[in-house]
Amino acid sequence: MKAILEFNLPEDQTEYQIASDASKMFSALWDMKQYLRNKIKYSSDQMPQESYNTFMQCKEELNDILSHHKLDLDI
User: Fold this and answer.
1) Which letter, b or e, does each residue of 32-47 get, where b requires 16 or more Cβ atoms within 10 Å of its Cβ?
2) pTM reported for the whole predicted model
3) Using CA atoms, how far apart are residues 36 and 30, in angstroms rounded to an integer?
4) Closest to 56 measured CA to CA, from 36, 42, 38, 29
5) Residue 64 half-sphere exposure, CB side, CA atoms within 13 Å?
6) Of the four listed, 34, 36, 62, 66, which is most buried by Cβ atoms within 10 Å?
């Protein structure tokens, strides 16, 4: 099976750029998700509770946003 995306340039330049950069966007989101995970999982006892809570809140918000847009980074 093949899928072909076709764009009429220059009119569809923005759509083309979004499709072209999709793998980079995926990687950036994956990196952010892993950063938050590691901050939470490997937090030292020296991390203030407020900081830990903030990382948790950011992780939950990122997951909610991804879920809302029906995106799954664990593919």
Assistant:
1) ebeebeebeeeeeeee
2) 0.82
3) 10
4) 36
5) 6
6) 36
CB-CB neighbours of 9 under 10 Å: 8
Q: What is the pLDDT of residues 17-69, one digit of tens each?
A: 999 999 999 999 999 999 999 999 998 888 999 999 999 999 999 999 999 99
From CA 69, how far away is CA 51, in angstroms rounded?
27
**Angstrom distances, CA of residue 43 to CA of 50, 58, 65:** 12, 15, 24
Domain ranges of the chain: 29-40+49-75
